[in-house]
Fold this protein.
Amino acid sequence: MHEVDVVVIGGGPAGMAAAISAYESGIEDVWLLERDYWVGGILPQCIHDGFGNFVFGEMLTGSEYAQRYINKLRETGVKVRPNTMVLKIDQNREITAVNPSDGLIEVKAKTIILSMGCRERTRYQVLIPGSRPAGIYTAGVIQRYINIEGLMPGKKVVILGSGDVGMIMARRLTLEGAKVKGVYEITKTPGGLTRNVVQCLEDYNIPLHLSHTITNITGRYRVEGVTVAEVDSELRPIKETERYVPCDTVVLSVGLIPENELSKMAGVEIEEKTKGPTVDEQMQTSVPGIFACGNVVNVYDLVDDVSESAERAGKGVAASIGGKLERRKTPIRVKTGRNVNYIVPQIIRNKNLNESTRFYFRVKETEKSVGVVVSANGDKLLEKRERIVRPPEMVRINVPPDTLDKIKGDELTIDVEERKK
Amino acid sequence: MKKSYFVTCTLCPMGCRIEVVVEDGKILEIKGNECKKGEKYAIDEFSNPCRILTTTVRIQGGLLPKLPVRSTEPIPKKLIPSGVKEVKKAKVKAPVNYGDVILRNIFNLGVDIVSSRDLEKENKEKKNG
């Protein structure tokens, strides 16, 4: 059995940044395990721009963002093991993996960083009735077909869901010569960023039908069409509004779910709201020595935020191995207050931290002119104004170490409060 | 005759719906923006909206069949569809490095189309970079 200081599982943006960060924090014995033939994760198929505004201060494409991290990774001594599938992790941080050149690999890790990312929800997770012909894909799959494999999935396309990848693929399909007949979104508001509504749909006159869903898919061998309908306030389709839209391809952009099979095997506690591990300010999970970062923890909006969380995890494992973490007597639980759906990290375990802790959270409802208030035991510690908060756009707030150290109790709350104009 | 055009600002999550009132090609008024930046955004979006062109080209002998490329600077939005077609004509052979010029000075705009990544030659024996 190999003995390794840090084993990073998954070589997407989170895994690459975490491995680099651990190495740069002084840990030389770092392995990065990746099941694909090379690192980069989903970024290489994201050929559009909009990445890296925070990390690099410029607008890069996803491919470029990945390349820059691959180049950085090459400058380190991180051992990258591609084509390697992790089969098992246990609570003692023993990892079982396989790859074609080494066969079975068994590793005892001092620390593990989980960075497996997320997976797309499929037709069977949103239960669309109808037949099961060819021509039904998730948005990420056609993104791979078009941008990596050079294959066109169809000519007349209907898109269900207005997630970012769905809207980006509406534009990409259009530019590659397909006809996108419409994007159907079950809720009253677009699921993705405003930037994508404007630059992917409005720029190309692709209709966005809000409060609509697909009620049936027809076609024997290939998709021939879909039935769409408006939905009521309870999201139930209204029968009278049903209409038929001929098409040969259905693309689903109906959400992403963190991929936590391995985390669960290791006994890591999973949050109900985020579907990812409960993490502390170092990105350490409920199992000592197991850390997590990126979209396996919570589906972030921006890759820049994924990299930031990964950098924190890298520093976290280094501090943990170096015995530099000072435990608080009682950990602080981070509580969701008014109009807050969930927050990451969920717990503060250590004190005398070197840097601010960045809390990421999503609101339940859109609200204008608000104050984001961090408080403990009824005392307001910090307030930050926001012009608007919307569920699809994560809110960030940094809390300095001395502010956290001042907290005597075991709770911290984040509220979104109305402000008078 | 006065005419109104609407622009959705993408500079921040507010996503202001900004109205640009125009007469004889001249901007008379800008309404609905919550901040100053929105005004400039609306003027640019109305008079010369630009976007980064991103697409892929076929690559000969590459590890993968497609190479992602981008324009070095934003180009006029209306030129994006024809730009995508123009870039397809480029003949590219592996290996390619990140930043290599794939097409120089597209439509004489003074903007190059460059590779967004490294792409090595196909090597069936050893597909692990």
